[in-house]
Amino acid sequence: MQTENHSTSSAKADGERDKEIGFVGVPTTSGAPAIPLPKSARLPINRCNLPAAILGSLTFQHAPVALELDGVKELHRGLFELLDKLDDVKERAHAFMLHMNASFFLGQPEQAGFTADSTLDRSRADYLRMVRGWAFDADGREGAVMKGWVESRFGLLQRYHGGPIRDFSDDTYRRYLEMRSAGLYGTNALEAQLDLLYTYCQYELARSHPGKMHLTLYRGVNRMDDHETLAQLDGKRRVVLLNSLSSFTANKERADEFGDYLLTAEVPLSKIAYYTRLLPDMLRGEEEYAVIGGLYEVGMAAY
């Protein structure tokens, strides 16, 4: 039995408009309804090989393909040719970090235009600081940068940052834009650094999980109403619209420390932006995975 709420009604209206431009959700093998990604949650353009209407759809969750950011592999072809020759994961991580440092002058900020008399020193605002800041506070400045990067590259709009974002003229959205701008100001091609981090993450996931398209990941939440539900499939499954970027974990036992309800999702590998074990000492914690948003069929259970 499918229940309808405001989000469901909005999705239906968006679905009618999508039919006019030729996009209709494809029924999934799990029996979930064909619900398109609402237009209010996506941009008409992005910087990868699939539009947001497709990569953010429920169909994509069940039948994903690889996502590639425009020009990243071509620009850094030498790095990935080197990685192909290395069998040890630690050696590959070391090679990646050396390449990142050399490409963006992370160890030589003066080569990137920073000067000692700058009124604001942002030389240390690099990709590592962004992911660490995201892990510490997803609603902080670094979190705003990460969510903004997803919006720019994948075309998925943020739905929450310190509060729900439904009206782009309200104070919550304005604060998000201020944080995002402050986080990017004076930095050294920060979003391009995140592009390369994502592309390397995808490379490592493909090598560590050959032939696999999904990982089963978990998220602890305090209130199910905090997630936009577009369809209630049965007593244990629902279709939700996730924020542009959300934290999940591979450790089911750790997930219950973060809320009274457990969400379980089959997450496409191509929608994992990074994970804690990707690089040495990048993050320490509960096997966190940063998951790119859109529509997801999730299981739910109370502890």
UniProtKB/TrEMBL annotation:
Locate the region Disordered.
Answer: 1-25
Q: Compositional bias (Polar residues) spans?
A: 1-11
Q: Which domain of life is it from?
A: Bacteria
Q: Which InterPro entries match?
A: DRA_trans
Q: Which GO terms describe its biological process?
A: nitrogen fixation
Molecular function terms, GO-annotated: NAD+-dinitrogen-reductase ADP-D-ribosyltransferase activity
Q: What is this protein called?
A: NAD(+)--dinitrogen-reductase ADP-D-ribosyltransferase
